[in-house]
Each structure stands twice: as structure tokens, then as C-alpha cells.
Fold this sequence. Notes:
The complex is a heterotrimer. By secondary structure, chain A is α/β, with parallel strands linked by helices. Helix content of chain A is 43%, strand content 18%. In chain B, strands 1-2 form a two-stranded antiparallel sheet. Chain C is mainly alpha-helical. Chain C has two domains: 23-222, no CATH class; 223-293. Chain C is 71% helix and 3% strand. In chain C, strands 1-2 form a two-stranded antiparallel sheet. The model of chain C has no long low-confidence stretch (mean pLDDT 86). Chains in contact: A-B, A-C, B-C. Chains A and B meet through helix 1, helix 3, helix 4 and helix 7 of A and helix 1, helix 2 and helix 13 of B.
Amino acid sequence: MNHKLLTALAILLVAAASAGCSEQQQSENEIRVGVVASMTGPASTTGKDIWQSAVLAAEEINADGGVFVQDLNRQVPIRLIQGDDESTREGGLKAVSKLITQDDVDLLVGGFSSAVVLAHQSIVADHRVPYIISGASSTAVSARDDIDTQYMFYHRPNTDDSSGVATLFIGDVLRPAINAKFNFPDDRPLRLAIIYQDSPYGKGHLSAIHNTIEAHDLNIEVVAEESFKMGESDFRTILTSVKAARPDAVYAVTFLNEQIPLVQQARRDVGLDTIFLTIEPNDDPDYYSGVGRYGEFSMLESRFSPYAAPKGPTGSAISEFVDKFNARWGGFPGMMGAATYESIYIAAQAIENAGTLDKAKVRDALDALEMPQMIEAMQGGVIAFSDDYRESKFDLYMSQLIWDESVGELRPKIVWPDTLKETDLILPDWYTPGSE
Amino acid sequence: MERRRLKLYLLLGALVIGAFLPLLPVTNLYLLTVLILMLIFVIYASAWNLLAYSGQGSLGHAAFFGLGGYASSMIALNSGLSPCITIFAGAAFSAFVGLLIGLTCVRLKEWFLAMVTFGFAIIIQTVIVSMLASITGGWDGYAVPKLISSDIHHYLLWEYYFIFIITIITILAIRLILKSRIGLALAAIRENELEARAAGIDPVQFKLLAFTISAFIAGIAGGLEIHHFGYITPEIFGVELSFWPIIYSITGGLGTLAGPVIGTVAVSILWDGLNIFGLTYERYIIIGILLILTIIYLPRGLVSLGERFEEKREGVRDFR
Amino acid sequence: MDLNPDVFIQILFWGLYAGCIYILLATGLNLIFGVMKIVNFAHGEFLMIGAYITLLFLALTGFNPYVLLLASMPMVIGIGIMVERLCFRPILGTGKLNEIFVSLGLIYIFQNGVALIWTDEWKTIPSPFVDITVSIGSLKLPLDYLIIIILTVGILAGLHIFLRKTSLGRAIRATSQNRKAAMLMGINVERMDMLSFGIGTGLAAGAGTLWAVSGQVFNPYMGSIPAIKTFAIVILGGLGSIPGAIVGGLLLGITENIATFTLGGAWKDAISFILLIVVLIIRPTGIFGEAGE
């Protein structure tokens, strides 16, 4: 009996030990990049996009022989290691600690849900692994000061950036257009209604809208503010009270599964014939196929679209990326995929600049990085991380959805800013402005 | 006699593994993280299991888990006390709320109780993100002190041992409760409330007691997790977090002391093991099938596997 | 806001449409409870599967999605019967907590099984009538909503006739009223269990098809929220009571919308549970529930 028990114990210990030391390899033959993505759970659609785009980028780099590392005096291929955060905080912590210690990664890329990233940031800070975060748009993630975040770099616009651009557009472009069309006095404020998801994402955008109005002294009056539960599908009551407030435009902070029924119910059921504005996560093929004709002339803040082709150098880069992604995986890449694809290239560039895999030096190289924009338009045409919270700055744009008879779906046309613009803003005939 | 000794050996073995595993040279951050989370969920599942022992199945234990985390971190931030102390204060708050929730639940039948506890987790989350947003940071949450300050060398190891000791104390405490008059009363209520009443046991009083103690222990687990993460967000009240302790307890053995422990360890190893094989959705399907098979074929969980085996062996011996 | 009669009737109409989905779910749940005295917490997953089967057959046949009710309902009845045989029958009479736990396992299996087959990206089923509205008096009503209401009434009427006029239906009702007596009368109660579970899940699948066609976006996790609300409704109304389900549904619908108006949309879910808890504190068996078991 005693004997058996000891054997069992020994086996258990050996099993645990072997689990602990599996995959421990020399890391000089390859650059090990951990990709933190939600492969399971509610965020897994985005997670797959992140992972597939990362693989695409790594394969391209490796096809060229890899990344040249001065220290080793040769080109080294990139090896991606998947870390599934399971869309939960616990899963993220496990995945990241496994990537850091067991897989001994040189660098981390990815991270989507803000809550999940917040829970594993401190472990990354402790182990000083460079982390290029391509999601987690909440400013609570990037502006954290309780831990040392100097190894973390953010390649995504934060909520302030995205809603800032959309709000500026409302104040500077949409308001004058409405006033001109209906012969209103020039100083007439725009009556804006906001419908937002009750989540970190929704709350972040809500405060960004208010901050932008205040900071730029925009002539916008917020006449209604309504929240809804994540995953909501019945917006009729909210829309009825929004309609009663008589807005000139409705700003909806939603995901596409919410935006589709919201717009349909607003136009069809409630008769709210106004301009709807929404933000970047909805710039997705599923949105265009789902929303149908009711989404016509609504506005979308974006930085990467499967269909829009901004004027300038990124236009051709986008179609090239979309084609390559489609050839490799079938289907369209999303916004998070584009950012992750770029992040892998950013990582490669930083390592090449550093000339070593030493984490502190790679971090410094990231900090000093200045590389030309790739798929997504960047401010000044350059990918660089800001001095304060190490965030890259995107050139965001507004597009308007126009019906395309040849595909039987809506397609986005960029209307602002002028540097990227494709067509002019249209106020449709059925549009009715709000009033006091 | 044989069985007692076997149990003792197993217990000693578990303790030895628990005490020395982190010290092995191969043990790294990953293994330590997995072990720490495992221990936290052992405590949490034990809390849920204690309530189930009284015949009350909660679908919303994340309410207590999260409240423990919020209360403890707020006390730690405002008083400057070490989280090692404030987790108990947080747990006390969780127990107080548990008592209040228990008051509405004790008269309810199984399904109703399940729905009401589920609802409480949602209500508490809503209150935290809306009415109390000014102090809880709403959906953004806030940073909380680490259980053991990360300035201390090998702080994760210290964290592990602290949580290990709390786990042992928790399990001993639950054992004491189950062996005492209270435990007998709870079992009697679970089996037949009318008979228990006839025997002079006041079901309301004991059910409330179970609710309070269970909320207290779940609160400790929540506090430990939050101070391990170093950040708290309302996601702590998520449905998943209410479901895991149920899965752990049932797989291990519903209503037994060792059940939640064995269940948590076994399911966690299975879960992370399946991940190595690249299974994603399949993992959930396997867990779901395992859960149903356990309920149908092994109603007393993995714990009873050993007993069954032994019974069979003894049966053979008798035959000889 | 100004509540003129037209707007009021319109809101009532939306409530009626949304209520159709809940009534189909709640009726199925009550039918199963009546016969087997079990509650299947995974009921919403059958709604979700119904929507996906509709999607599958739409791609295969290109038929009008409403016609595909004839595919989704029978197929899910089959799945329901299998689930009953494999998962619920073995645990009948072993303690009520087990039903809850088995449902939990089923939720994991179905959600992730569907995700494995169809991925968990958002899907839509376009209705062929999406742009058509019908004017009734001063009201402009989308044709889809009218069809959904008519189909729901049709399905429920069919169920009513089946339960009242056929011998099989009478046997189900007899089992529901007194299981032992039914057994003594020579009714095969296990077959009745199977049948009622199948019909109950079939109703959920019908709700799923109608829900998807009415412009909802769905993924494998979409079944949980409507299911939870249905439970609240069923519990409010009292388990096993059909009029209770209708009253409970109306009560919940009104409370939710008032809460959305006054407290904000974030409270929509919480308020249903607050209502549930308040009702249960006053009457632990629900509004129409019987005192005993």
C-alpha cells in the first residue's frame, strides 16, 4: 500500500515537473513572440482575427529570411506562440505567465479586452517583457500609474482618440452642413443624442465625447443620453425616448450585433429618420451584410475598413493586405487583425534596430521607434509611440455608408478628413433635423 | 482501519506536494500562477459546496466572490492595512450581505433559489457600475495593492504559501463545521426539511448560518484573487465565475469535504492540459460531457471512485 | 415624453411581438415542467439551435425563412428527445439540484458545439419582407412582426388542439395532472416525458427561427439571455401555469421598459430580478403557483 502511494506521488511530481519544463529551448535560433488572443469565449471572433493576422505577418517576415539580429550576425526567423486568454481574467493571467516563463518569449503582442489586460499587466511589468498591446482601448489600461508600464506599448487609438475624431467631425462638418441645408443660423447648436453600451468600452467613449465637446468648445448640445446592456437587441424604448428629445444626429457606441438592430428599429419601427454615427469596431463585413438598406447614409468612425480605400499611400496597402489575408485564411481581416499584423512588423523592426534580443534594449528600441505607416494611416505617416503613455497615433477618418447596387450592400466612402477623403458628405432627402 | 490509513496518507501526500511543489527547481511563474489560482478556486468551490451541503444550490456565488474583492481592496486602499488582513474584513462584509440575501432565499425551492441567487449577482454588478460608480470606478475598476508587495524578493512564492495556509485553515474549519452539530443539522435539512423540523431543528436558522459562512469563505477567495491580480473590475461578478465552483464541486464530489479540492485540481489540470493539445471549444464540450456523466454515473464525484474501487477489492477478498 | 394613443398602441404592439418569443419559450418550459416536474435551464440553447438550423437550411434550399420553421421545429424535437433520453431521464427523481447541474453541462456542450460547426461570428437571416410595412388605421406596422404574431398564434393553437383533441395529447395532460394515476391507466409515462420534452424544445426552436428572421443578430451564446428572462417570467407566473406565463410576461415587459425609461438601460436585467425577488418574498411559489409541489 505504502509503496504504491509513494509511486503514485512520484509519478505526480514527475508529471508536474515535466509539464513545467516542456518546450524550454534555446531561444537563439528564433525570435519567440507570444500572441495574447481570446481563442475561446465571447471575444473569440476577434481573437482569431488577431492570431491569423499575426501568423500572416510572421510568415511574410520568415519568407524573407527572418529578422536580422546584429548580435548574432544573421537573420533569425520569428516563431509565434499562442496564448489563449479564454476571454477571462484568470485565463489571461495563466496564458501570459506561461508565455513569459515557460515559452520564454522575447516579446508579447495582442491583448483585446480591457478587463483581461488589466488583470495581467502587473505580471508583465514585473518580468519586464516588451508588450505591444493592439487592443484594450480603454484609457484605464494605458494611463495606469500603480505599476511600472514602461515595457508596454499601445498600437491602437484609445477611446479618447476615436470618439474625439467623431465628435470633432460632428461639430466641424456635420453641424455646418445641416445648418446650411436647412437655412438655420450659423450659430445653431447641433442636438446630439448618445446611445452607449453599459461597459468599459461604452463609458470610455461617452466621457471622450463630452471631453472633446468641452476641450474644443464645440457647439454641440447633448439632448439625450441612454445606456443599454451589452448584447441588447430591443432598442425600441430607448429610441422612442431619443426621438422625443428631437436630436439632429444619434451617436451610438455599440458593437455590430447591437448596431444592426438599433439602426433597423430606429428607421423602421420608431421612424427616427436621422443620421446615425458609430465607431470603428463596426467597420466589419458582417455589419454591411447585416444592416441592409436601413443603414444608408449613416456615419462610421474608422481606421481600417475591408471596403474603404483612403486616398493616399495606405489605400493600396489595404487592398494588398486584404488579398493576402483572404488567400491565406479565406475571409476578411478585421481592424484588430490589421493592428496586430502591423504590431508583428513593429516588433521585428524594433528587434532589428536594437540588434539584440535583450529585452531592455528592445524596449528602448520600441520607445525610439519611427517606422513608416503600413496599412492604417498614422499621424505624420509614421508609427511612433508617444512620450507620455507610449501610444501610437492613428489618422482616423469618418466614412459614410452608401448603397452599392452592384453588390446589393452598403459600402463605406470616406468623407473626412480631406487628406483621405473619397466623396462628399450627403444629407439624404428623408433626413429630418431635430428642433427645440 | 485500512481506509483511514489510506486517507491519512493521501492527505499527507497532498500536503507534501502542496508545500514542496513550488520549491522544485522546475517550478516557474506559470506553474506558480496555475497553483495559486487553483488554491483560490479550491477555497471558492469549498464555500459553494458548504452551501450545497445544506441543500441550497446557488447559481450566483460570484456575488460573494466579487463583494469580498471589492470590500477588501477598498479597506486596504483607505486604511493602508496589508491585504493579508483586509481580506478577512472584506469577507466579513461579504458574509453580512450573504446573510441579507439568505433571508430572502431560505424559504425558496431549488429552482427559485437558483434564479434568485443568479439575479443577485447581476443586481450587485449593476449597482457597482451605476449607483456606486463614483467610488468603484464603474466599469474601469481600480488598481489594488498586491497581496504581498512585489518589492519583496520571491513575492509570488510568499503569496502562494499565504494562500496555501488559508486554504488549509478553510478546509479544517469546514471540516469542524460539518462534524459538529451544525453539520448534522444541515445534512438533516438537506435530506428532509419536514423531518428535520420535527426533530427540533430550525431550518431557517441553520440555512442562514450556511449562507453566511459560505459567503464569508467565498469573500476570502475573491479578496485573494483580486489582490493577486492587482486590479479589480466588475467582470468579477461574471456568470462564468458563478459556474466554475459548481463544476469543480460536482466533479469532485458534491457535499464532501475533499470533493471541491479534488474536483478543482482535476478539472484545472484537465482544462489546462487540453489547452496544450490546441483544443479550444472542444474543452468546454468535454467539461460539459464530463459534468453530465459525473452526475449520472458518479453522483458522489471523483471522491467516490476510490471507495468504489476499494469496495470491489474487499468484495473479492471476502469471496476468497 | 408625450404619450399619444398612437405611440402607446405602437409600443403595445412591439411588446406583443417581443412577447411572442417569450410565450413560445415559456409554454415549452411549462409543458416540460408539467409532465416531468423538471426545469431545463438550457432551454435557451434550443432557441439558438433553431436559429442555426434555419440558417443552414436557408443556405441549402434558399426557401423563405418562415417556411423553414418546418425544418427547425422537427429537427430540434428530435434533438430534444435525445437530450431527454440521455441526460434527464437517468436523473429523474435523484434530487432537484441535479437538473440544474445537468442543464449547466448542456449549455456548455451546445454553445461550443455550435461554435465549432458555425464559428461564433455574428450571423443574420435576412427576411424577404424586411422593407414592407402594412398600414392599419394610423399605424404603420412592419409585415414581419405581423407574420410572427400570426405564426405564434397558429403554433399555440395547434398545440392546444393537439393537447385537447388527440388521444396522445390527452395522455400528456393526464400524466401532467397525476403521474401515478396515468401510469395505472396504462399510459406509458416515459413516452409522455419524451414527447413533452421534444415538443417543448420544438417550441423553443420555433421561437429561434422567428427571432432570427425578425432582424436579430445571433451567435452561439445568444440563447442565454432570453432563456433567463423566460425563467423569470415562468417563476413569476408560477411553474406550470400558462395564464401565469402570460401575466408574468406582460408584467416583466412593462417593468423592464419603465426601468429603461427612468433608471437607464443598464438596469434592464437587474430590474427583472428585483421584481422576481420581491414577488418571491411575498409569495414564494409565484403569483399563480400552487402552494405545494
